[in-house]
């Protein structure tokens, strides 16, 4: 018992080797838009619980452990999530934020309640999920090609941009909000989709300065090849969150094979499975460019979209805590020569259960993924 307490105190006093910011999906509660399309009370837990294995060694369904099939309207759930993250060395959550233009929002309730209540007292920031909301987002194979529009992502112009900023401003001013060099951290999912990106950034930077900040810290998410990252910087982003997913998958399969299969998979109902062995894939998820000061590597515990899209899913298998730990170590090593403020790593994700990228405890591995993250961040061998 004494030894356990000593270890606990040591972890508490030690500083993590990197600033890990975890992507957080606020989907797990009913909303009218989902009720209208999928039926009363729908959340993605339905897809998660009904998932089936598609090949030998494919583990589905993945069932949550400690938190169960939670509802994010419950404050105690949010508190427990924050405590699990804090204990593992995560600096804060990046809540996905849905602003479709003209003030239209979705899935806003969990974050709004976090902001209004002051609880949990755990750092956070926002990531703008600027993409269309379609029926294909949550469907399995038989409906995958039915791209019915639920909510269209639009960019109406300055009046809406200002309203968007003012909505976020209360969050930016909250003492919990994550900042980089004094600037609020704000990630954009589809980094190149904002039609007048530089103007948008100029306007928000102006508004930020008028409200006492030195500006905004805009981060573009990139799933592209390493040389494509420069496109985000040319648009005016201050940093790029580099996900090595496409790079690693393409290296594993071959560029042209990957592209051809991708096109076939979008056209035909009967397709070969797009699956990858995580134990071979993880070595290419972190690249040399992740060592650059304002390129933030993404760590990905797994990927399996089959609960949402059946046989059309990208599936990573053999993603064990052992190889996850090796992946995290590579990311931590990549940021060690950066200024402390910029030693940022994006955890993709905290709770994307429908995509198989989550670190919350489940019935298969328990806390092992969180424990592995903690061991790397605090230097335990």
Give an overview in words.
- The protein has 381 residues and is of the alpha/beta class.
- It has one domain (2-377): TIM Barrel.
- It is 36% helix and 18% strand.
- It has 14 helices and 16 strands.
- The chain has helices at 2-13, 32-38, 45-50, 75-87, 109-117, 158-173, 197-210, 230-235, 245-253, 255-267, 278-281, 306-309, 321-335, 368-377; strands at 19-24, 90-99, 105-106, 124-128, 133-134, 149-151, 179-180, 183-188, 217-222, 239-242, 274-277, 295-299, 314-317, 344-347, 351-352, 357-358.
- Strands 1-2-4-8-9-10-12-14 form an eight-stranded parallel barrel. A two-stranded antiparallel sheet has the order 5-6.
- A hairpin with a 5-residue loop joins β2 (90-99) and β3 (105-106).
- α6 crosses α7.
- It is globular.
Nearest-angstrom radius of gyration?
Answer: 20 Å
Rounded mean pLDDT score: 92
Could you name the CATH homologous superfamily?
Glycosidases
Unreliable spans: 2-6, 141-145
CATH class, named: Alpha Beta
Q: What is the β-strand count? A: 16
**Structural category:** alpha/beta
Largest pleated sheet: 8 strands, parallel, barrel
What is the string of helix and strand elements?
Answer: HEHHHEEHEEEHEEHEHEHHEHEHEHEEEH
Instruction: Name the shape in a single word.
Output: globular
Q: What count of domains describes the coordinates?
A: 1
What name does the CATH topology carry? TIM Barrel
Shape-level CATH architecture = Alpha-Beta Barrel
Strand share of the residues? 15-25%
């Amino acid at each position: 018992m004494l030894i356990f307490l000593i270890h606990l105190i040591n972890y508490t006093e030690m500083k993590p080797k990197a600033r890990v910011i975890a992507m957080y999906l606020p989907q797990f509660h009913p909303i009218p838009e989902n009720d209208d399309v999928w039926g009363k009370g729908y959340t993605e837990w339905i897809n998660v619980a009904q998932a089936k294995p598609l090949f030998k060694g494919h583990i589905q369904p993945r069932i949550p452990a400690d938190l169960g099939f939670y509802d994010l309207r419950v404050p105690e759930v949010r508190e427990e999530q924050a405590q699990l993250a804090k204990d593992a060395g995560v600096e804060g959550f990046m809540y996905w934020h849905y602003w479709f233009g003209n003030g239209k929002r979705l899935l806003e309730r969990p974050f709004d309640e976090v902001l209004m209540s002051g609880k949990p007292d755990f750092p956070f920031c926002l990531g703008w999920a600027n993409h269309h909301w379609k029926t294909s987002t949550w469907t399995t194979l038989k409906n995958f090609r039915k791209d019915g529009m639920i909510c269209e992502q639009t960019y109406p112009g300055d009046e809406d941009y200002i309203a968007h900023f003012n909505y976020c401003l209360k969050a930016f001013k909250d003492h919990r909000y994550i900042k980089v060099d004094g600037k609020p951290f704000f990630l954009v999912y589809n980094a190149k989709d904002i039609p007048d990106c530089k103007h948008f950034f100029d306007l928000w930077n102006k508004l930020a300065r008028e409200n006492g900040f030195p500006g905004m810290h805009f981060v573009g998410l990139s799933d592209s090849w390493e040389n494509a990252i420069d496109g985000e910087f040319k648009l005016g982003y201050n940093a790029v969150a580099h996900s090595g997913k496409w790079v690693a998958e393409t290296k594993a399969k071959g560029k042209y094979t990957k592209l051809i299969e991708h096109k076939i998979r979008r056209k035909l109902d009967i397709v070969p499975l797009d699956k990858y062995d995580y134990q071979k894939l993880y070595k290419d998820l972190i690249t040399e460019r992740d060592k650059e000061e304002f390129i933030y590597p993404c760590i990905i515990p797994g990927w399996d979209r089959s609960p949402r899209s059946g046989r059309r899913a990208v599936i990573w298998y053999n993603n064990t805590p052992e190889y996850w730990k090796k992946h995290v170590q590579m990311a931590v090593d990549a940021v060690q020569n950066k200024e402390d403020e910029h030693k940022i790593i994006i955890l993709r994700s905290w709770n994307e259960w429908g995509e198989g990228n989550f670190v919350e405890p489940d019935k298969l591995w328990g806390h092992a993924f969180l424990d592995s993250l903690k061991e790397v961040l605090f230097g335990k061998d």
